[in-house]
Specification:
The chain is an alpha+beta fold. It is about 40% helix and about 10% strand. The protein has 24 helices and 20 strands. Strands 10-12-11-13-14 form a five-stranded mixed sheet, with helices on both faces.
């Protein structure tokens, strides 16, 4: 990162201050008349966009190079402005000089097909085509030194003749130009672009067909202000060692457009970063003495902080057997047999994903395959595999419209045993999401995981854009996948296309229940619920849950490049070797020797913070004390007459009793109707876990009580931490995540 410094120019030469306290002394030293020659005065010339803070005719000039969003800026600003020297500011880039990211430049080619068929006609310009030339003239248009637009305004009756004159002048080339006419050609082209009504279009025309316009440009007279600005820019480029290059300056950072490694993505990223810096500059305390205004601007700085990519990973390997289906296996499938088998291949220089016949990248798709977004994600994943991406694709299917019912014992901390007979009895394939999940499970049981994936690809491919699956399309895709499958049939399941379609139809219409299918569909729902994921659309790469849902092109592809850098480090440290049995497991641990020591690895993904920041300042409630050293207050608004509401209240009170998170908690009744009586009684006993349990099982009622009034729909559950709105907690870990997040935010405010 560029260091903060003040460069001081004066009659005695150039001096550099690395500390704010040295500025005044070096200003005095720079003002000494040691040399009277003009060569000793190295005062830089200001760019057109730079304005000095003080310009009192001093012989000394201070060039302050600093990141204006840093905490050091105020001290440097005070030190420089306290002197009598001319002082101006140049923002120091906060971007690092080097990056681990490598932006690749794409190249394209145009194929022009010319018709070489002989034509018995004259192709030269005729009088007819000449008369069809455009007779419109742009404001300030000039060709060959003639201002055609001005002439057209004065003599509109001669527009046709002026159009022909423009064609004649434009046909001239640089062959007729004298050498002395080429001297200011670049400045003349610049002035033509600046003066044009549509500068971008003019710049495009000049750059793409410059010889055609050269003769006309050479007749232009260059304005004095443009010539002076060009001299200033040239002097600056000479001073900075940037001559002879096509540069775009963005907030003081030079981007070499002519470089073969120029990246448009890096330029756009720089624009976004500069916009963030400008917002933070507007929030600097040095610009105001108003305390209230200062607090508002400090909040603005915190609100514009860039969101850091999460490093927390979810252990999606434990408990996944039977729940996750793998579409491919890079270590066993024959299509990968010609790939390099050694993980040492990762250490070779590469500008793309390295192809290795190892399961280095495991991308898990959790989706409801009845939605258009999910089917598009399946199609993109299939295209990635066909194009040779070294990714192992895994998937879990379910119905996003079905909610997980709370268990009967809302105070239970242990997972309930699964009653298989009850699961089979309650199996209901009436929704499309469940039908797709059941058909995929049947394909996996009847043939194997590749057939299950082929069924999903068939379902995603053979449909109109935006068309939702139907029962008939699901059955048709299943039959096609079975008929094209190369996996061996499993005894007990139909193996032909028509027979398998009939078997699936009986299953989906509840005429025949297949126990294994019902159990597998329920097992996938339990796995997703236990891991805190959602069938609405989740993508996880080696346990890292990605943002943006199922948009694989915008979240998975960039994450693969970052994950490759992480895997390279693990290979260098010999954490992953050619003899490693489970690279997926090692990637989850990330170098830790065990799950207990892997602080970044959690059993469940927390969704409690997946809401936009919403400020709400409550009135006084009855508080339950928690962590004495905490600085976070949690308010739970929930319907205490519902099982889910009591469960959420239990989790909050239990969190307070553990004394490890929030400083205090409060549970407030949020009824769906004013006539509720059970919830009012329970709300008066939300002081401890035991008191809540006793009130819940007593079934007593009350006619009045405190109810929640705030930004939470009646009958729903909302959590507020230090006024920040969050989702409802589903386990103890959610509240720990919420308390830690708000504690960090509170410390930044302090």
């Amino acid at each position: 990162v560029e260091s903060t410094r003040a460069i001081i120019y004066g009659p005695s030469g150039r001096h550099v201050a690395c500390k704010a306290s040295d500025v005044s002394a070096l200003v005095a030293k720079a003002a000494e008349q040691v040399c009277t020659s003009q060569q000793c005065d190295q005062t830089p010339r200001l760019l057109g966009s730079e304005t000095p803070f003080s310009e009192d005719g001093s012989d000394v000039t201070i060039e302050l190079i600093v990141d204006v969003t840093s905490s050091q800026f105020r001290a440097w600003h005070d030190a420089c402005s306290a002197t009598e020297a001319t002082y101006f500011l140049r923002h120091a880039s906060h971007l690092r000089g080097s990056s681990n990211q490598t932006h690749l430049q794409a190249f394209g080619a145009n194929l022009d097909i010319k018709d070489l068929e002989y034509k018995n006609m004259d192709d030269s310009t005729t009088e007819t085509t000449t008369t069809q030339a455009s007779t419109s003239f742009e404001e300030g248009e000039e060709v060959g030194g003639v201002y055609l637009a001005t002439l057209a305004q004065r003599r509109p009756d001669l527009k046709q003749e002026l159009s022909e004159l423009r064609t004649q002048l434009a046909s001239e080339t640089t062959d007729s130009l004298k050498v002395w006419k080429l001297r200011d050609l670049s400045l003349q082209a610049t002035q033509a672009t600046i003066d044009a009504q549509d500068p971008l279009r003019t710049l495009k025309d000049l750059s793409q067909d410059f010889p055609r316009h050269a003769a006309g440009l050479s007749a232009r007279r260059v304005r004095d202000d443009l010539r002076e600005a060009a001299a200033t820019a040239h002097a600056y480029s000479m001073h900075s060692g940037l001559t002879g290059r096509a540069l775009v300056f963005l907030g003081g950072t030079a981007h070499d457009v002519g470089s073969p490694t120029f990246s448009l993505h890096a330029l756009l990223q720089g624009i976004r970063s500069e916009a963030s810096s400008l917002r933070q500059l507007a929030a600097l305390d040095v610009l105001t003495t108003d305390v209230d205004e200062s607090n508002k601007r400090r909040d603005l700085i915190l609100a514009t902080d860039e969101k850091q990519r999460s490093t927390t990973r979810v252990d999606l390997l434990s408990g996944s057997k039977g729940s996750i289906t793998y579409a491919n296996n890079l270590e066993k499938d024959p299509e990968y047999k010609d790939w390099p088998p050694s993980v040492q291949q990762l250490l070779y220089p590469s500008w793309q994903l390295t192809s290795v016949a190892k399961n280095l990248y495991t991308a898990l798709l959790v989706l409801d395959a009845s939605t258009d977004e999910a089917l598009n994600a399946i199609y993109v994943a299939h295209a990635m595999l066909r194009q040779g991406y070294p990714v192992r694709v895994a998937f879990v299917l379910g119905d996003a419209s079905l909610s997980d019912e709370a268990s009967g014992d809302v105070f239970s901390d242990e997972a309930q045993d699964v009653d298989e007979q009850q699961v089979i009895k309650q199996f209901d394939p009436s929704s499309i999401g469940t039908q797709v999940a059941a058909a995929c499970s049947l394909a996996k049981l009847a043939r194997g995981p590749k057939t299950a994936w082929a069924f999903l690809v068939e379902l995603a491919s053979n449909r109109e854009y935006g068309e939702a699956p139907t029962l008939e399309s699901v059955i048709s895709a299943y039959g096609e996948a079975i008929s094209m499958s190369e996996e061996d049939p499993v005894p007990g399941y139909e193996s032909t296309k028509k027979a398998s379609e009939k078997q699936l139809r009986r299953l989906l219409t509840n005429e025949e229940v297949i126990n294994e299918v019902a159990l597998q569909v329920a097992q996938q729902r339990r796995f997703v619920s236990q891991k805190g994921l959602s069938f609405e659309g989740t993508v996880a790469l080696n346990g890292l849950v990605l943002d943006s849902g199922l948009d694989l092109q915008n979240n998975l592809l960039p994450a693969l490049g970052q994950e490759q850098a992480r895997l390279q480090q693990l290979v260098r440290r010999k954490v992953i070797t050619d003899s490693t049995k489970s690279i997926y497991g090692k990637a989850l641990l990330g170098g830790a020797s065990s799950k207990e020591k892997a602080t970044h690895l959690v059993e469940r993904h927390s969704r409690i913070l997946e809401l936009e920041k919403h400020e709400y300042h409550w009135s006084e409630y009855d508080w339950v004390p928690g962590n004495p050293q905490g600085n976070v207050s949690i308010v739970l608004a929930t319907d205490l007459s519902s099982v889910s509401g009591v469960r959420a209240a239990y989790l909050v009170l239990k969190h307070a009793s553990q004394k490890e998170g929030a400083a205090r908690v409060s549970v407030v009744h949020n009824p769906s109707s004013d006539s509720d009586e059970t919830g009012h009684y329970i709300s008066k006993h939300c002081t401890t876990v035991d008191a809540l349990r006793e009130a819940y099982f007593s079934k007593k009622t009350s006619t009045d009580g405190v109810t929640f009034r705030g930004p939470c729909e009646p009958g729903t559950t909302c959590t507020f931490a230090n006024s920040r709105k969050a989702n409802a907690p589903t386990n103890d870990g959610d509240l720990v995540v919420l308390a830690r997040s708000e504690a960090l935010y509170a410390s930044k405010l302090a």
